Each structure stands twice: as structure tokens, then as C-alpha cells.
Amino acid sequence: MIELGVSTAQVGGSNPPVSTIYKGEGMNEAIMRALGFGKDVEKVKAGFCPQCEKPACMEEFKDELSRKEYKIGGMCQACQDKFFE
Ligand SMILES: [Zn+2]
């Protein structure tokens, strides 16, 4: 009666890894808006870096710290490098 596992091998395929695009999940939206970053919130939620307005995704980050930073402010790796240098 157990028929699990039938479709798991098909997950992935040629589809882009949509789940790796951060859309502001976990971001402190209320605080961001209160601080006047409402526009940034919209950009981040759309999957874009608020600084350079390029699309950002989890794959481009070099380490966990950068991913953490991305989850806080939505900045892509390139902008983080500039910001923290
Ligand atoms: Zn950027």
C-alpha cells in the first residue's frame, strides 16, 4: 500500500530552483517599513537587490554570513562586498 517515492526522482528536472530566490520571508518587514525602507521591502520581495536592483538568489552567496545578511537587508553578494569592505 505504500506508494510514496514515485515522484521524488522527478523533482528538479530543468525547472529553475525557485525556492532559492528569497522574497523577504523572515525579513522584518514592519521594522524595515518603519525605518523608511518600504521601497526596499518591495524590491526584496520581488527578488531584487535594493541597492543595484539586480535579481539576487541564494546560490550567489559565498557563505552563511552573506546569506544571513541577505535575509536582513536583501542585498546581493556584490553589494555586500562593497558595503562591508
Ligand atoms: Zn546588489
Overall description:
There is one protein chain. With 85 residues, this protein is mainly alpha-helical. The chain has one domain. The protein has four helices and no strands. It is globular, with a radius of gyration of 16 Å. The N and C termini lie far apart (58 Å). Residues 6-13 have low confidence and may be disordered. The site of zinc ion has 8 residues, from helix 4. Zinc ion is lined by residues 49, 51-52, 54, 75-76, 78-79.
* Count of structural domains: 1
The multimeric state of the shown protein is: single chain
> Quick check: average pLDDT?
79
Tell me, what's the shape? Answer: globular
Order of helices and strands: HHHH
Beta-strand residue fraction: under 5%
Structural class: mainly alpha
Enumerate how many helices there are, as a single number: 4
Unreliable segments of 5+ consecutive residues: 6-13
Percent of residues in helices: 25-40%
Which small compounds were modeled alongside the protein?
A: zinc ion
> How far apart are the termini?
58 Å
According to DSSP, the number of beta strands is: 0
Rg, Å, rounded: 16 Å
Biggest sheet descriptor: none
List the defining traits of the structure above.
85 residues; mainly alpha
